[in-house]
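Researcher: Re-running this chain for the archive, since the previous output was lost when a drive failed. Same request as before.
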Amino acid sequence: MVKNALAEPEMKLAIQDEKAELSVLYKDKARAVLMSIDAETIAKGNLLQKATSTAILLDKSLLLSGDAFPIVSVNILLDVVDAMRTRHDAAQPQTLTLPTPTNPA
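Model: Regenerated structure tokens:
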């Protein structure tokens, strides 16, 4: 029922409009907060706050400049490793070991 409602063109348009509006609001608030950070504010922060802020600001800067590294899911990496292992195992010759015949005498 919810999926059907979300598939309606009017609902898609409403969601798209809401996302666009929220994006602008968040961007404006982020700019205001960022502009309020001065040397005194930074000096008051503890090491964890400074490290976290630095990481977030650097990530956003790289993302906006187009230099960000893609975030790859660990699950995707594990799938790639499994696929490579399967491919490698398939390329290896298989050895068949036959049981040693017993002498009934």
